[in-house]
Amino acid sequence: MSTSKEEEATLLPLFETKVARGRVAFKLYSFTILIGIVSIWLYRLIHIPCIEEQGKYAWILMFFAEVLFGLYWIITQSARWHVVFRYPFKQRLSTRYEDKLPGIDIFVCTADPTLEPPILVINTVLSLMAYNYPPEKLSLYLSDDGGSELTFYALFEASNFSKYWIPFCKKYNVEPRSPEIYFAQKIDLNEPNFSQEWTSIKKLYEDMKRRLDSAVEYGSIPKEIKNQHKGFSEWNSQVTKQDHKSIVQILIDGWNTNAVDVQGNRLPTLVYLSREKKPGIAHNFKAGSMNTLIRVSSEITNAPIILNLDCDMYSNDPDSIRDALCFFLDEKQGHQIPYVQYPQYYNNTTKNDIYANVSFATYQIELAGIDGFGATLYVGTGCFHRRESLSGKKYSGNHQIKSHSVKDNIKGRTIEELENSSKLLANCSYENGTLWGKEMGLVYGCAVEDIVTGLTIQCRGWKPVYYDPRKNAFQGVAPITLDIALIQFKRWSEGMFQIFFSKYCPFIYGHGKIKLGAQMGYCIYLLWAPVSLPTLCYVIIPPLSLLHGVPLFPKVSSLWFVPFAYVFVATTLYSIVEDLMCGDTLKGWWNLQRMTLIRRTTSYFFAFIDTMMKQLGLSQTSFVVTAKVVDEELQKRYENEMMEFGSSSIVFVIIATLALLNLFCLGLGIKKVVFSDLEILEKFVAQLIVCGLLVMVNLPVYEALLFRSDKGRMPFSVLFKSIVVVSVVCLIPMFWDLQTL
Ligand SMILES: O=c1ccn([C@@H]2O[C@H](COP(=O)(O)OP(=O)(O)O[C@H]3O[C@H](CO)[C@@H](O)[C@H](O)[C@H]3O)[C@@H](O)[C@H]2O)c(=O)[nH]1
Ligand SMILES: [Mn+2]
Question: In the chain, how many domains are there?
Fold first, then answer.
């Protein structure tokens, strides 16, 4: 798309970047905290008990914890140093580019028909096919790592249903365009024409859903349906998830003028893809599937812009493609932008977000703060890419989005020819001896392929953009049980810590290529796993020391008490105010504190251990896909914001043990110090506060251990095991006296 040089100079920009206000105040505040932290370190160093005194090792561990917390805090400041917000101008885009909009290839990934039900997948697909965008420029590719005939069948049904759904959406401008979500809404049906159409489309949707449900239930698809499409012949009894040939089926060939909906409008292209799998050959999880998508789509439609989504992330805004294009097509800055990342919001979060799935401050401030240093994180879904930057190309000054046509790309080949040539690109052996997974496409070998890929793109000179619009562009399904929420964080924190240890460590790999602020910004996340260690110290040592009468903090009347109190109170107030300003509730903030504690003491801790094992070559990268299915009872408890435990996993034993340890020590500690003289009480106030807060944060854990009777309670075995551990730790004085040996 070329405009002349003079024209370019006079054009208004397609997007604007504004710097957040209040940065001077923030820097001053940040400086006072730093002084507080350094004072705390000094206090620890000066007052450490000598060899003969009790508690020396407890103090050393506390010092270790405070140093790590302090250093980590310094790293986190980068994300608030230079926060920027982006504002695209869709109107200007339309006036300038409406007749030369680029093609968009949308990639949706799914991996398992049980964990990710086909009906969920096609709802996402339908919401995307119904974008307000010229259909002949829109193509949708579903990558099915489950290799499931049911998912293919669902997509086939969706291709038929779309002929009714898309014109209905566009005619009445309905939102959101995921049928399931749309029909679950309360709709005003006063207008007779609309009401009639609404009813008939809803019936079509429900009939389709019923057919799918029964196919899932019987595990097979009726013969008369199979006869309707040649694609079903790809499946026979030998095809399994782990072992099958490449399958590529073009369900709608959008370049064909005969591919139309019931009103005669063109339809977007729709392609089903399941790359070849062979036992024993690494398939590199989502990264592998994305790379296959990149190749196959380049064979068929080859659009210059790619939108990448997980199968649960439906489009919540039918106009968001245009927002994203404002960035890519901006005449001045667009050529430098490799991707535009949107935050990952969910449609099923409860009022106070019990598992803290949405972290308001992270989405609205931290990610925008990292963007301020030119280093937006790619988070794997809700991201528009420039195809060029995904193929390993270095930024080299002038990259324009060329208007291209599918017709030229397919060079008159038939559907069968396109399918056959695409299949070759989806074969296991295709990547052998190529740079795919190394310098081309998404990077292999890491459970957070997204983060590491984004980093490599930036280090090649590109400047991505983070955009958090007022109306969520995409919404996904958040985990609604504690163990799934923790599995997800374990995968993330492990993958990220692994990056820190690899050749991609931002401080080394990014040195001289991205700004220091950006390197630090990455490390806020890459260092989640090791933050588990100081957290564990702070959760275990204060209660035990209280129990054994070892003071850890200065007396209330001492001047040294000030930095402790200041750092704690100021950072807490800051985070509350920030969170509330971002739209969270006070209870939501409190839930986030609990989840942070639980994640750090379980997910991050296991991630830390597993990363160490991997460094030693003892284990391998895996990717545990999260379930997106729910049963009704569970859904009820979730909506009532009750935490879901229910299984006797080791994770819950840890959570229960830490909670009971603090409760027990607080109880005995109060007995011991509060009823003695004031002098002693003064020495233990801070410790009592630490334990007291930990107990308060853990209230739902005690409830689940002792008072609940529903299925989501902690199993009795967890209670039993954790009581045994707490008793051993507390009652055998040996453990504690080791320090005096
Ligand atoms: O072998 C695999 C495994 C997963 N997936 C897909 O990857 C997506 C993400 O999996 P999910 O279990 O939902 O993980 P999340 O933690 O929700 O995913 C986040 O984190 C991942 C990295 O850990 C990124 O890949 C995702 O894009 C990002 O949304 C889903 O669509 C899966 O179908 C595949 O296509 N193939
Ligand atoms: Mn997901």
Answer: 2
- Those residues whose C-beta lies under 8 Å from the C-beta of residue 611, and which sit 6 or more positions away, are 494, 497, 498, 501, 529
Ligand at minimal distance from the CA of 115 is 1
Give the confidence band of 345 by pLDDT, cuts at 50, 70, 90.
very high
pLDDT category at 6 given cuts 50, 70, 90 is low
335 pLDDT above the threshold of 60: yes
Question: Got the DSSP string for 528-577?
Answer: HHHHHHHHHHHHHHHHHHHHTT---S--TTSTTHHHHHHHHHHHHHHHHH
What are the tens digits of pLDDT across the range 635-689? 999 999 999 998 888 999 999 999 999 999 999 988 887 777 888 889 999 999 9
pLDDT tens by residue, 106-123: 999 999 999 999 999 999
The verdict on residue 48 lying in a domain is no
Ligand 1 pocket by C-beta < 6 Å: which residues? 109-111, 116, 145, 285-286, 289, 310-311, 380-381, 447-448, 450, 488, 491-492, 495, 623, 625-626
Q: Can you spell out the DSSP letters for 484-528?
A: HHHHHHHHHHHHHHHHHHSTT-HHHHTTTTS-HHHHHHHHHHHTH
pLDDT of 7 reads 63
Name the DSSP letter for residue 706. Answer: I
Over residues 677-716, the pLDDT tens digits come to: 888 889 999 999 999 999 999 999 999 999 999 999 999 9
Task: Return left, alpha or beta for 185; rule: phi > 0 is left, psi -120 to 50 is alpha, else beta.
Answer: beta
Q: Which ligand is nearest to the CA of 147?
A: 1
CA of 375 to the centre of ligand 2 (A): 23
Residues 216-252 as b/e (b if ≥16 CB within 10 A, e otherwise) read: beeeebeeeebeeeebbebbeeebeeeebbbbbbbbb
Written as one letter, the residue type at 437 is: G
Give the integer Cα–Cα distance in Å for 372 and 81: 8
∠ CA(426), CA(431), CA(437), 5° rounding? Answer: 105
User: What number does the ligand 1 atom closest to the CA of 308 have?
Assistant: 27
Residue 5 has a pLDDT of 56
**Residues spanned by the domain of 631:** 515-735
In a domain, 493, yes or no: no
> Quick one: pLDDT at residue 4?
56
Give the residue from 436, 457, 480 where a domain finishes. 480
Residue 416 and residue 551 in one domain: no
pLDDT tens-digit map of 266-289: 999 999 999 999 999 999 999 999
Residue 176 covered by a domain: yes
Which helix or strand (DSSP H or E) is residue 143 part of? strand 138-144
Residue 741 has pLDDT above 60, yes or no: no
Do 526 and 471 have their domain in common? no
pLDDT of residue 234: 97
Question: Which of 144, 145, 353, 371 is the catalytic position?
Answer: 145
Residue type, 638: Y
Hey, whose CA ends up nearest to atom 13 of ligand 1? 626
Q: For the domain that residue 313 is a member of, what is the CATH number?
A: 3.90.550.10
The residue whose CA has the least distance to atom 8 of ligand 1 is: 310
Residue 105 near residue 305, CB atoms below 8 Å? yes
CA distances from 314 to 123, 124, 175 (A): 7, 4, 11
Q: Is 408 a catalytic residue?
A: no
Q: Are residues 452 and 572 in the same domain?
A: no
* 3-class SS of residue 182: helix
Measured CA distances, 100 to 58, 329, 404, 405, 556 (Å):
68, 11, 9, 11, 70
145 carries an active-site annotation: yes
Q: Give burial (CB, 10 Å; 0-12/13-18/19+) of 408.
A: exposed
* pTM, 2 dp: 0.95
Atom of ligand 1 nearest to the CA of 625: 12
**120 vs 275: CA distance, rounded Å:** 21
User: Which residues are within 8 A (CB) of 63 and not within 5 positions of it... i.e. 6 or more apart?
Assistant: 41, 44, 45, 48
**pLDDT score for 620:** 74
ipTM: 0.98
Ligand 1 atom having least distance to the Cα of 488: 16
